[in-house]
Amino acid sequence: METIFAVSSGAPPAAIAIIRLSGEGAFAAARALAGTLPQSRHAALRALRGSGGLLLDRALVLAFPGPDSATGEDLVELHVHGGRAVVQAVEAALAALPRMRRAEPGEFTRRALANGRIDLTEAEGLGDLLAAETEGQRRAALAVAEGAIRRRAEGWTDRLLALAAQVEAQLDFAEEDEVDQAAPPAFAMEALALADEIATLLAVPPVERLRDGLRVVIAGPPNSGKSTLLNVLAERDAAIVSPISGTTRDRIEAPVVRDGIAYVLTDTAGLLEETPDPIERIGIARAEEAMRSADLILWLGDDEAPQPGAIRIHARADIAARAVVPSGADLAVSAATGEGVPALWSLLRDHAAMLLPREDAVAVNRRQRDLLVLCTDSLRAASGQRDPIVFAEELRLAMKALDRLVGRSDVEAMLDALFTRFCLGK
Hints:
It is a single chain. This protein has three domains: 3-114, 2-Layer Sandwich (Gyrase A, domain 2); 148-206 and 363-404, Four Helix Bundle (Hemerythrin (Met), subunit A), CATH 1.20.120; 210-355, Rossmann fold. Helices cover 43% and strands 17% of the residues. The chain is built from 14 helices and twelve strands. A six-stranded mixed sheet has the order 3-4-5-2-1-6. It has a six-stranded mixed sheet with strand order 8-9-7-10-11-12, sandwiched between helices. β3 and β4 form a beta hairpin. α4 runs antiparallel to α5 (135-145), α6 runs antiparallel to α7 (185-202) and α12 runs antiparallel to α13. The two termini are 18 Å apart.
């Protein structure tokens, strides 16, 4: 396998740039530039020289022998000065060496996965950690990257293996006239208990709400102040505002981070029962679709919201004709004066607390959730089986789902998509 290299400390210029080398030729490549290598896991100053002995830079060099390294391979870090010319010169010298090439996005982490240094859930957590923009995102991603899901999966796998061994023992040592003997009730109880335990993790709100932001859809009839409210909440002119009915024809999204919580605010077309305008009908259909997929709806109409659970906003509260707040409204807001806007953010934060994972909770993504659902379905199916052979097959399916969860099987189809999210040096 070729040895790879890349800058892992971000794009220059910077005070320091860290160039990582990983693979069986990492030590030889580092010696070609730096001469002797320092003692393993100790930093030492070395002069890096290219072809003909040309001095490239003076750098700190660290060597990490595999398999006890971040990638499971021999790995070297060159801490060079972070100017573009320095980094380009060192990379050019490395690229000129035999069997050396630049790393692809996420390739260091992919090798760590292939060499058993991390599992698939930890790789996914690391990807989310690199993209984290809020404190909640950082905490959730770090927990997964540090093995929170892997440790649980290992415990469940151990219990499944023990239960499967008991079932196999019953089948192997049964007398011929006992082959059709039913699985003991204790087996079913253990399978059901394990399914219930996994279900507690599935009950945690999905991590996508943290990672992608809570979807807050602003909806209501035409000219109810939806676009104005979006601009006030986003603190920029994200949507066109005019007194002309039907100005907003399509969904307009504005990502916002407030109090450490990520939101995606969506302005929608005004809802009408009938309209002769075909473009407006499309906008209304998209508004209805956005409402169906929303985590929260801010309803600006004076009548009842078309979906239960919506937050009813009495908008344009500064207008004299709207001075009286209807009894069904949750909050009166004036985008023009700012009245009620802080209270609206507070109300959104309270709702977010119920929709987002708690700080101490482990949250799973959609891929992980789907596999855990498969696992629990198989376990519940096993608990209802009297035939030990069918019981054992359901356990095998549950085990297969856990293997796919941590990346022990059937993962190649999604690895490319996962690691393209990573930077070159990761």
